[in-house]
Design goal:
The chain is an alpha+beta fold. It has a domain at 19-103 and 152-167. It has helices spanning 9-17, 19-47, 57-61, 71-75, 99-108, 116-124, 143-151, 154-167; strands at 78-84, 87-93, 110-113, 135-138. The strands form 2 sheets. The chain has a two-stranded antiparallel sheet. A hairpin with a 2-residue loop joins strand 1 and strand 2. The radius of gyration is 22 Å and the shape is elongated.
Amino acid sequence: MINIEINDRQIMDFFRTSPKRAEWAMSEALKMAGGHIRKDLKIYIESGLSEMTPLHPVTVAGKKGKASPLYNLAKAISFKYGRRKGVQQVRIGWIKKGLPVIVRRALYGRRQRVTEKIRSMFHYRGYHLRKATKMLTTPARPALDVFWKKKKAEIPRYVEKRFFQKFFSKGRARLRF
């Protein structure tokens, strides 16, 4: 998880002078940032950039249709806006229940015992394991660290820009029938 604080005197002045409007504008800015960064993270994961260890041929052979093997992992990325101890925040990443186990295995590596089921899957995909092979190792792919290092400087400027855009807009969009 990455924490980014925006310390802008001008934004703080708006929070003092018109707190409700500033709070609304900040919530909208954070939601926009969440959607924007989520989309960038999806593209980053799907592309399997050079920072990551290449996928094993068995993983590539197991893809369904034209989707990349990392497609399902990227598809599960989402964002959630909320408050924690009175502070507005947006969480970006794999926040669905049960998914972090899959993410940990894919991004941080794993060592697992070879079972008959795994052995038959490898055989079915055209890669035969030796009888002496007892363990498989999935290498760590810490691609998220590289992604966040690139995005960290960009996020405060994006949120600040969207805050001022929303704060000085005509107001909340209301549907009238």
